[in-house]
Amino acid sequence: MKHLYKQTGLNHLKRREGDADDQIPTHTRTPRTPKTLPRPLNYLLREQRLLFVFVGFLLATTFFLVQPALLRLGPVGPNPLLLLNHNSHNHRHLLPVPAGVRVPPRRVVVTGGAGFVGSHLVDKLLSRGDDVIVIDNFFTGRKENLVHHFGNPRFELIRHDVVEPILLESKERNDIHYFMSLRSKLNHGYKTNVMGTLNMLGLAKRIGARFLLTSTSEVYGDPLEHPQKETYWGNVNPIGVRSCYDEGKRTAETLTMDYHRGADVEVRIARIFNTYGPRMCIDDGRVVSNFVAQAIRKQPLTVYGDGKQTRSFQYVADLVDGLMALMESEHVGPFNLGNPGEFTMLELAEVVKDTIDPSATIEFKENTADDPHMRKPDITKAKELLHWEPKISLREGLPLMVSDFQKRVLEE
Ligand SMILES: O=C(O)[C@H]1O[C@H](OP(=O)(O)OP(=O)(O)OC[C@H]2O[C@@H](n3ccc(=O)[nH]c3=O)[C@H](O)[C@@H]2O)[C@H](O)[C@@H](O)[C@@H]1O
């Protein structure tokens, strides 16, 4: 009968060496390890167990040494840096991009992207290589603001009112990365701010996009604190003529935070202070656009009330930089985005006169109800956490919008 031998590697070696023990079955052999060793050690030394442990150790060491180097070599799959995973609370997408690694272009939906601020934001996003889908109802937005992108395969324009839900299908979850919702003044903005924000938050939740709400300094109402910090809860008249807009934005902030806390949507909130620049609506009644257009048309500058109320005016490019910094940061906000340079309306009229027509006259008119007496952002938080602050003063920025206004006034 054939004997079954339990052949160890050691026996095998010995067999080749022609050892005399060769023919002795293992189970009948005297163990080679001394009997005096403790049992666990004895166990380890038998049957090449030590060798296997050593080889395993070597393999593990090699893997952990080589793996980081492999990761640095380049993308693994389509989304190497998880820039897309904006609906989670991990912050891996904030990792710095290693040199030489191509970041996949992000897809950004900008609602209100044909408007004044929206179109400047779209310019910036496209210029850094993102894909942009603009949704606009063209009530205040204009195709002219985006016409230079028509024909660009990375740009899409959809005529739609965000008050109605919209189904944006994406190939996969997280296919759309950012959602930027720009503001509207229409119908005092209430419907857009509440229904629009609700619809867009639902969409952001469904497709796993990060959502940016562009709120406003108007949430502070007629402030009793000056300058205004983000911690100030505001002083808004709930039944006043401005309250649809003010309360609409306040509700939009509430909804945004609720979706963040309750549905895990990753959100950012910016409180935008008075902003000016090329492509502003000529006729929506804002003070900078009114004064500039009036000076160009050789009409008197209409100052409401005594003209001593104050505002702080930021140039649109500064705002866009702030919005981008906020989107890329890991901070939810809210953040004040504004220029702390504060002016009375009479002082603003002087700057406009100096810039466009020193012979322009001033005409006083009755002010609207509930007009905030003063407004100036405290931007300490944005400076510290976003490393952002505006660079362009009013005197530098105003001339940059004049030629655009001159052209449009002439076209009229
Ligand atoms: O442009 C903006 O960013 C802001 O515009 C408005 O807020 P408001 O501060 O009232 O801005 P304007 O309508 O431009 O008015 C600013 C001041 O100028 C005065 N004004 C306006 C127009 C004018 O012809 N003359 C004039 O003196 C107004 O009475 C007010 O005191 C919006 O309600 C804000 O949400 C938005 O952030």
From TrEMBL:
Tell me the cofactors it needs. Answer: NAD(+)
Query: Has UniProt tagged this entry with the keyword Manganese?
Result: no
Q: Does the keyword Transport apply?
A: no
Q: Where is the composition biased (Low complexity)?
A: 25-36
Q: Which InterPro entries match?
A: Epimerase_deHydtase, NAD(P)-bd_dom_sf, UXS-like
Protein's cellular compartments: Golgi apparatus membrane; Golgi apparatus, Golgi stack membrane
Listed GO biological process terms: D-xylose metabolic process
Q: Matching CDD domains, A to Z?
A: UGD_SDR_e
Keywords in UniProt for this one? Decarboxylase, Glycoprotein, Golgi apparatus, Lyase, Membrane, NAD, Signal-anchor, Transmembrane, Transmembrane helix
Q: Which Gene3D superfamilies match?
A: NAD(P)-binding Rossmann-like Domain (3.40.50.720)
> Which EC numbers does the record give?
4.1.1.35
Instruction: Identify the residues that the record assigns to the NAD-dependent epimerase/dehydratase domain, covering every copy.
Output: 108-338
Q: Which GO terms describe its molecular function?
A: NAD+ binding; UDP-glucuronate decarboxylase activity
Associated pathway:
Nucleotide-sugar biosynthesis; UDP-alpha-D-xylose biosynthesis; UDP-alpha-D-xylose from UDP-alpha-D-glucuronate: step 1/1
Any matching Pfam family: Epimerase
State a GO cellular component annotated for this protein: Golgi membrane
- Which reaction does this enzyme catalyse, per its entry? UDP-alpha-D-glucuronate + H(+) = UDP-alpha-D-xylose + CO2
Q: How does it sit in the membrane?
A: Single-pass type II membrane protein
Region spans: Disordered = 1-36
Q: Which family does it belong to?
A: Belongs to the NAD(P)-dependent epimerase/dehydratase family. UDP-glucuronic acid decarboxylase subfamily.
Name of the molecule in the record: UDP-glucuronic acid decarboxylase 1
Q: Which organism is it from?
A: Acorus calamus (Sweet flag)
